[in-house]
Amino acid sequence: MLDIKFIRENPELVKKGIKNKNEKDTVDQIIELDEKRRSFIAQVEELKAQRNSASQQIGQIKKSGGDASAQIAEMKRVGDMIADLDKNLSGVEEQLHNLLIWIPNLPNETVPIGKSADDNVEVRQWLPEGFTFENEEKVLDHTELGKKLKILDFERGAKITGSGFPVYMGKGAQLERALINFMLDYHIKDHGYTEVIPPLLVNRESMFGTGQLPKLEEDMYLAEKDDLFTIPTAEVPITNLHRNEILEENQLPINYVGYTACFRREAGSYGKESKGFLRVHQFNKVEMVKLVKPETSYDELESITNDAEDILKALKIPYRILMLCSGDLSFAAAKCYDIETWSPAENKWLEASSCSNFENFQARRANIRYRKTENKKLDFVHTLNGSGLATSRLMVSILENYQTPEGKVIVPEVLQKYTGFKIID
RNA sequence: GGAGAGUUGGCAGAGUGGUUGAAUGCGGCGGUCUUGAAAACCGUUAAGGAUGCAAGUCCUUCCGGGGUUCGAAUCCCUGACUCUCCGCCA
Questions:
Q1: Would the ipTM clear 0.85, i.e. be above it?
Q2: How long is the CA A367 to C1' B8 vector, in angstroms?
Q3: Are residues A69 and A164 in the same domain?
Q4: How far apart are alpha carbons A344 and A350 in whole angstroms?
Q5: Pairing of strands A378-380, A121-126
Q6: Measured in angstroms, what separates residue A248's CA from nucleotide B9's C1'?
Q7: Residue A253 carries which DSSP code?
Q8: Within 7 A of a protein CB, which nucleotides of strand B?
């Protein structure tokens, strides 16, 4: 959520940001409603001040046994006027709110302007020693490998639930679990994060707080009876841990890491991209969330991105970092790096992580503030998150990059102590 | 699922219609005292909004929403959550 005062004072800046994000510009309507709102406030507050002092007088008169019926009649009239004005005011405020919640966060000034994913900018690439993009022999893709080695079963997943709900079997399940544990341990021990196991269903307030609602309602599973959503990412419950709280400056930065299953309807995105793990409705992800002081948030963005990269370096998976252009940024993000891992079978990069700075956009929605040590003033924290990482796409890269000419898969060295075996055959 | 109790400021906890934004205690901050610290004592201590260059003035807020009233933390309705007991269950 943007600050209405900021919009009022910088309408052109806001309009530009909205345009660069390909979102709907309602700034003129917002400013008009804001003026209306403030004019109603001025009127109604004037009357309320009048009523408050008169009510006090009436109390005095009654106490001393006098007759206050004239004042009471007058105040009844004033009360009716207040009721009318209040009604108008809340009507205007509702309209204003309904526009404001659709205004996206503005891109940071360092973000390249662009329309779509084609305009994202590659920042750097990391390739393991000896890696080459050319494959002399045919590489099996992850679905073929999964079938051959009996470690993934997409067909049975479709039977018991529907397409896009993968089943991991045997060593596949063990590898998945090893990967999750490895990533959690790494972030906890080497990067100093605190582990959280949050609920997988959350209420509307939480979904609003991180910016999934109202825009992305159609992309989420909803348990209608209880009006609860399954989480599309652990970002939602973990960031909302501190909703409506005031933190102390010396508590910051707060670094959380959590593993959860994630659920996405991916409405309207069926197609060739949906093979195997490439697009699923349920997947596993280790997510990092940071609550930080505003002045540090861009350093923290670099840091959280590095934390995700460290995992890939340890696994020796080739990856590249993209800086998303304005048009490809999510609704709530001000700046975002995507990490893509290499898939030799698809012969392309697959998004495995997304690290974003939301500045105070989510903190405003979720009302997460902190008290500054210096002057005791309150301010909104900045929130960040980054996948560290999503296992589905990562599993594609591991299976494909670590396969032997015979179609077996070597377990990455750092995972071997977690799996207890070195090869899947 | 059934029955009951509760939700007040950073925390604990008073307050059942009229200077109650809210007693008191703790905590926090400032000060006195002290070589320093502790103790003791004194003072101070909410957030959001409107307006204003500012000082200030005003409005709102006692879980959320609605109502009664000239006036509500206080009365009524409703929703959420918490706790206790019973039932069911991993």
A1: yes
A2: 21
A3: no
A4: 10
A5: unpaired
A6: 17
A7: S
A8: 10, 18-19, 47-51, 58-60, 66, 69-71
Contact A219, A264 (CB under 8 A): yes
Q: For residue A403, tell me if it sits in a domain.
A: yes
Identify whether residues A361 and A218 lie together within a single domain.
yes
Please name which of A392, A164, A154 lies closest in space to residue A280, comparing C-alpha atoms.
Answer: A164
By C1' distance from the Cα of A61, the closest nucleotide is B18
Distance CA A380, CA A2 (A): 12
What total number of domains does chain A contain?
2
Q: pLDDT tens, A228-275? A: 899 999 999 999 998 888 888 888 899 999 999 999 998 766 665 678
Closest nucleotide to A4, Cα to C1': B49
Q: Which residue is nearest to nucleotide B51 (CA to C1')?
A: A42
Strand B and A58 CB separated by under 7 Å = yes
Statement: the CB of A348 is under 7 Å from strand B? no
Q: Tell me, what CATH number does A407's domain have?
A: 3.30.930.10
Determine the distance between A52 (CA) and B68 (C1') in angstroms: 18
pLDDT tens, A151-188?
999 999 999 999 999 999 999 999 999 999 999 999 99
Q: How far is the CA of A346 from the C1' of B38 (A)?
A: 71
Terminal Cα distance for chain A, rounded:
51
Residue type, A242: H
Neighbours of A54 (CB within 10 A): 16
Residue A359 lies in a domain: yes
| DSSP 8-state class, residue A236 | H
Choosing from A35, A68, A100, the residue where a domain stops is A100
Amino acid, res. A287: E
Domain holding A71, by residue range, is 4-100
A76 touches strand B (CB under 7 A): yes
My answer on whether A230 and A337 are in the same domain is yes
Specify the DSSP class assigned to residue A403.
B
